[in-house]
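User: Please fill in residues for this 343-position structure.
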């Protein structure tokens, strides 16, 4: 996750732009056209989705849906594109440059609180992946022991609030905490002992890489220490796109639900497909992605509910916490930012 920008300014700038050079001009040409429900024999409805970052295990359901023909079954032609920055997808969706975007639940709340017309249509990863990590050889094995320490973070107010909440909930004093901006160099910062702890690293990526290179870590899960158990990744669109393409979006949700079922039942085939789709600039390590998928599958499982199901309660709980932490100032309701489209 990249640092939050001021969403209203960014949205206005992107709306006025004729193109987004950083991410190319691959958005669907019909993003501003009303679409009727697809009929058999009709031309496929085109949907463009911006990934949150480079292809990795969390996107396996998309490639499975494409490969197995589930998008085609819904009469959809889906184009996937990778952004140059993980802040871009949500801004692109808001401005109608793409139809759908994979983004983060706190990021949607931040944007909506600033008046950006984005809405979630599904929860993809149902629990946080972001954890606070310390080296096991540091002796910092409880949240209380973080008190007075130097925390490396990607300069996100959200991450600072998470650390302070975890420390206070664990009985520690957060007043002596210091925060060092390390960007997203999570692994190097902890490897070189530049900081005492890091936040912003994921249990299915940075933690796995650290442990692979002989640096076992303690991982404190924020939702075990007073931070809401929020959705890490969600599927977003704009109010306008949803109004024009709701039937197509509902078909997309059905297709990715089948895609996720395929991944669960065919992990090795799904991983082989993912590796075939990896970005040349971001090569994947098969052992890391294998372990990542094992971590992700249960965290993406909605139980008796369909894949991508989301609740207003989850949204409102996080909204209220972010308001309390002064991460947002506007009063917004869950119903403004989510739509229950999963059947």
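Assistant: Residues filled in for all 343 positions:
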């Amino acid at each position: 996750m990249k640092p939050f920008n001021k969403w209203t300014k960014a949205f206005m700038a992107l709306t006025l732009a004729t193109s987004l050079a950083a991410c190319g001009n691959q958005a669907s040409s019909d993003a501003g056209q009303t679409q009727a429900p697809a009929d058999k024999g009709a031309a496929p409805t085109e949907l463009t989705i911006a990934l949150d970052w480079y292809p990795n295990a969390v996107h396996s359901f998309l490639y499975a849906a494409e490969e197995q023909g589930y998008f085609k079954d819904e009469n959809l032609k889906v184009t996937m594109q990778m952004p140059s920055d993980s802040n871009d997808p949500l801004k692109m969706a808001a401005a109608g440059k793409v139809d759908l975007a994979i983004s983060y639940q706190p990021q949607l709340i931040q944007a909506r609180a600033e008046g950006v017309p984005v809405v979630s249509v599904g929860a993809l990863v149902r629990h946080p992946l972001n954890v606070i990590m310390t080296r096991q050889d540091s002796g910092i094995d409880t949240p209380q022991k973080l008190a007075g320490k130097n925390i490396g973070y990607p300069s996100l107010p959200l991450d600072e609030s998470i650390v302070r909440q975890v420390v206070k909930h664990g009985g520690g004093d957060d007043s002596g905490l210091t925060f060092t901006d390390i960007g997203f160099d999570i692994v190097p910062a902890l490897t070189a002992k530049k900081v005492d702890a890091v936040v912003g690293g994921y249990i299915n990526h940075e933690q796995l890489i650290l442990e692979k290179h002989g640096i076992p870590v303690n991982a404190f899960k924020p939702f075990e220490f007073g931070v809401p158990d929020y959705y890490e990744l969600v599927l977003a669109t704009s109010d306008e796109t949803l109004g024009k393409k709701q039937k197509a979006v509902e078909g997309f949700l059905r297709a990715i639900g089948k895609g996720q079922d395929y991944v669960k039942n065919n992990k090795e085939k799904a991983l082989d497909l993912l590796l075939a789709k990896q970005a040349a600039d971001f090569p994947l390590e098969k052992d890391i992605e294998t372990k990542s998928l094992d971590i992700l599958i249960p965290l993406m499982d909605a139980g008796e509910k369909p894949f991508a199901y989301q609740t207003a309660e989850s949204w409102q709980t996080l909204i209220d916490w972010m308001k309390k932490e002064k991460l947002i100032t506007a009063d917004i309701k869950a119903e403004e930012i989510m739509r229950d489209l999963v059947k």
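For context: The chain has a mean pLDDT of 89.
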